[in-house]
Design brief:
The protein is of the alpha/beta class. The chain has eleven helices and 26 strands. The chain has helices at residues 12-24, 46-51, 64-69, 129-141, 151-162, 184-196, 244-248, 293-307, 394-402, 408-414, 421-431; strands at residues 5-8, 30-34, 72-76, 79-83, 88-91, 96-98, 101-104, 108-110, 123-124, 144-149, 167-171, 200-202, 207-213, 216-222, 227-229, 232-236, 239-241, 257-259, 270-272, 277-281, 286-288, 320-325, 328-334, 362-368, 371-377, 382-388. The strands form seven sheets. A five-stranded parallel β-sheet has the order 3-2-1-7-19. A five-stranded parallel β-sheet has the order 9-16-10-11-12. It is globular and about 65 Å long. The N and C termini lie far apart (50 Å). The protein binds flavin-adenine dinucleotide (FAD). Flavin-adenine dinucleotide binds next to α1, β2, α2, α5 and α8.
Length: 433
């Protein structure tokens, strides 16, 4: 009897798992369940869809043919309960599904604040394509928008709304943007760029309430007593793993679904992958969350192989994000930050908790206008880097940090004040090719 596979979640983790299962097991039926009517698409791409840089159709990496080639049985619906002892999963229409191996790849969803007015229809978030469509529809009619939150998503929303609304206000609880990943100079570059683009940044401003007029958003009130008139409010204060199904079924859950290095949950036949999984990291000695596209894909790959009988251990790659912050292309790699960001209640999207697991490291920096490089220099290796603007060093840094290459020959030069970091690293990386 072939193994019956079931995957909840049709994001990149679920799809990568389906590919890995099919590569290892040509016969086992795979049921792929998703409550998102738009199926599989690029979530990081939503930012570019909002700014109008890419068309809606470009968000979808697969055509029908690719799904058919894997022989997937796709079901549109929400999984609402799970009985691990019986190997059964129920969908919202009460239809039970029997599985031999199950993957929970349910992703994460935006944390909603509980404030007066926060349930108005013009108070929006950005989790999925339906949210992006709603945001565009509202923004086209809005004069003024307020964005609240931190991390990449808040900034992407600011940039997207700026294309459509006359005025965009950005509220920051503290003094600067994304303070647990970026340092002061990096945050300053981002904020200066936003201000130059006409975004009104309000530091030390916290949302207290949203005022309505005839059932529609009319203004926000801040804890500092300011009233900002607006037609829509976008909130990006972090995300939380969608772990309810696992929790109710009695699986081990902390902030996300706890899994070992094989991506197995506390039940031997149930796996978890992607944003929902809190994966044990041997380097940090604890289980951490990642909200990165590449991490979700490699989780899915490992989980899929193991569901089909493999014994693969997930080796977390050095967390990496190459993204755009206020138009400045930025590579964030390795361990780079510290503390917590007052603008975020949950982890930001495009973030990794490993970024804040900084061991012993010294900082070396170089800056020319919007081009900026910050290195976290460990005893024998680079442990992290933030590269803004000119990206020629992005790949060499990914290699030096990802492969933990010994930098002893240039370490003291890197730590010399005013050292030409970029040229030192370029030459060194070429030498260790
Ligand atoms: C706007 C935005 C910008 C981002 N920017 C970046 C970036 O710059 N860099 C980066 O690396 N990452 C970025 N990310 C994060 C990245 O997209 C995620 O880490 C990745 O998509 C996670 O994949 P996943 O498969 O774990 O979850 P998801 O892609 O969230 O998929 C989970 C799926 O499960 C479905 N589901 C959940 N619960 C149920 C249920 N009970 N029943 C049925 N279906 C269910 C959901 O509808 C969804 O389709 C961004 C994300 C967003 C939204």
């Amino acid at each position: 009897m072939p193994t019956r596979y079931c995957i909840v979640g049709q994001g990149v983790a679920g799809i990568a798992a389906a590919q890995a299962i099919r590569a290892a097991d040509a016969a086992g039926p795979i049921t792929l369940i998703s409550d998102d009517p738009h199926g599989y698409y690029s979530r990081p791409g939503l930012a570019y869809y909002l700014t109008g840089e890419i068309q809606r159709g470009h968000l979808f990496p697969w055509r029908e043919q690719e799904f058919q080639q894997l022989g997937l049985h796709r079901v549109l619906g929400r999984a609402i309960s799970l009985n691990p002892a019986e190997h059964r999963l129920w969908l919202a229409n009460n239809v039970p599904l029997v599985y031999d191996r199950l993957l929970l790849a349910t992703g994460a969803s935006a944390v909603r604040p509980t404030l007066p007015g926060s349930d108005l229809p013009q108070v929006i978030k950005l989790d999925n394509l339906a949210d992006a469509d709603q945001m565009l529809a509202l923004a086209r009619r809005a004069q003024s928008a307020v964005v609240v939150g931190g991390g990449i998503t808040a900034l992407e929303i600011v940039e997207g709304l700026r294309q459509h609304c006359r005025r965009v206000h950005y509220l920051l609880r503290g003094q600067r943007y994304w303070s647990n990943v970026l340092d002061e100079a990096e945050a300053r570059l981002v904020m200066q760029r936003l201000a130059a683009e006409g975004v009104r940044i309000h530091t030390h401003s916290e949302l207290a309430a949203i005022e309505a007029k005839r059932g529609r958003v009319a203004a926000v009130l801040t804890t500092a007593g300011q009233r900002i008139a607006c037609d829509l409010v976008a909130i990006a204060i972090g995300v939380a793993p969608r772990a309810e199904l696992a929790q109710a079924a009695g699986l081990a859950v902390a902030r996300g679904i706890l899994v070992d290095e094989t991506l197995r949950t506390s039940d031997p036949d149930i796996f978890a992958a992607g944003d929902v999984a809190q994966v044990f990291d041997p380097r940090a000695g604890k289980a951490l969350l990642d909200t990165l596209w590449n991490s979700a894909r490699s989780h899915g790959h490992t989980a899929g192989q193991n569901m089909a009988g493999g014994a693969l251990r997930y080796v977390k790659p050095m967390p990496l994000n190459v993204t755009r912050l206020a138009g400045i292309t930025t590579t964030i790699i390795g361990a780079v930050g510290a503390g917590r960001d007052a603008d975020l209640i949950g982890i930001a999207r495009g973030d990794s908790e490993l970024w804040r697991e900084l061991g012993q490291a010294l900082v070396a920096e170089e800056e020319h206008e919007v081009n900026r490089l910050r290195l976290l220099v460990g005893l024998t290796t680079l442990v992290g880097a933030v590269l803004m603007g000119d990206q020629r060093l992005s790949r060499p840094l990914q290699r030096l940090i990802g492969e933990q290459i010994d930098i002893t020959p240039i370490r003291s030069q890197l730590l010399t004040p005013d050292a030409p970091l970029a040229s030192l690293l370029t030459r060194f990386a070429e030498g260790v090719r």
